[in-house]
Amino acid sequence: MALDFMDLLGSMVQGTMTSSPAASSRMSNAGNGIQDLLGSLMGAGQTVTQKVGGDNLAAGGIGALLGALMGNSKSTTANTLGGGMMGLLGMMAYKALRGSMSGTASAAPTQTRTQAPAYVQPTPQQQATDAEIILTAMIDAAKADGQIDSDELNKIMGNLKASGAGQEGVNYVIKKLQGPMETAKIVAAVKGRPELAAEVYSASLMAIEVDTDAEKRYLDKLAKAMGLNSAVIQNIERLTSANSQDFVC
Fold first, then answer.
1. pTM, whole model, 2 decimals?
2. Do residues 9 and 127 touch, judged by C-beta distance below 8 A?
3. Phi, psi of 131 (to 5 degrees)
4. CA-wise closest residue to 222 among 193, 197, 239, 240
5. pLDDT of 35-49, one tens digit each?
6. Torsion sign across C-alpha atoms 220, 222, 223, 227
């Protein structure tokens, strides 16, 4: 039976929220801003489809993700959390890319602007493929400082099992954590898809506390390899740092 990467991503998100207060805070900051934006769009009588590319982002589980972040949605399934995470990342990518085009953060003169893509409704297969890439990026970020020891592996395994991941999923994550970095695979997957590159960077940023030089260097290297310019990077970092007003269109 093939792994359900949306389920596994949801379990990984829940485990990250449990083990990293800083990562949980970044998800919550971004999610609250998106909830505010969706509410304001609907209140103004404008459809989410017109403004952000698809009402699936509103219905994709963002509310459930926020409920889990706040600790008041214990019955939320891993699949719903995975869908919420993908919706959150999709909205962040849209905002970061759109903001870089409108000049909310200035790119260096020598840099090529990252084009904001037209939204295309992903197929279920594409969503599953993207979820696998996002999961790979989060795992790579977690081992970027090279300090995954046996105690940390046991902790990760415990968090995944507690969040509902099956043994096959746990084994997959542990194997990835113990294996080599997969930057080349990630870069190849996002080629020609700036929105997925922005999602990958956002997920990587949310997965860790970014408190070592090695982690900072890894994120810089990843962003450059994926072709994200400084404007997009700054927008993503702003969106996860705290202020819901940064989401205003």
1. 0.78
2. no
3. -60, -35
4. 197
5. 665 555 445 444 444
6. positive
